[in-house]
Amino acid sequence: MAALAVEGAAVTALRAVFHRVRQAAERSGRSSSDVRVVAVGKTKPVSLIQQIYDAGHRCFGENYVQEIVEKAPQLPEDIAWHFIGHLQSNKVKTLLTAVPNLDMVEGVDNEKLASHLDRAVSSFGRHPLKVLVQVNTSGEESKSGVNPTDCVDLVKHVKLGCPNLEFSGLMTIGMPDYTSTPENFKTLLDCRAKVCEVLGMAESQCELSMGMSGDFEQAIEMGSTNVRIGSTIFGPREYPKKK
Asked: Is-above-0.90 flag for pTM?
């Protein structure tokens, strides 16, 4: 019964998130249909993700290859999975094999990974894989992501040198305490403007994935098209207790 109560709470929380997304989008003069909500189930069981699916949601994300390859085969095939964060080249084949319905990788942060992913997608014979280039907008050494000054070069490599990847936009992960997110988000907006200018793209063709549980409304107000919501939907992360 307790598990059912938690699952019911997650569906209620999902609806509340969509309500907040709609309000934030309206404040920025946009429609809520312009903003994708990725429900991030990190550390959460398949049963809880299934409950969110049964409520009508189809876009889910995971941060660890080990989790997504374990969960995706147990869940419906029409889920659009996002892998979020730093992806190691040696995990690419595992990820593509286990998750044929992988919709997007949010986190290509260097040319070597982009080229490796491009070759792997080609060898699997699947349709081009959507990718976002991850930008380190906070300057923290612990964060993955390309330096903003190198962003255009990496996007060029993906767009012009990786025919099996579909460049879809930029993503960033702000500060953990959310104190500097306006600066982080502004940096990503500046990167998009530069990328679109150099490559002759409309800004509407370049997504911005920014905003998580603690700051997604502000991110939407600043132009985010993709927010990654975990704990606000699913509850706090449940990490194994250290023995």
From this structure: yes
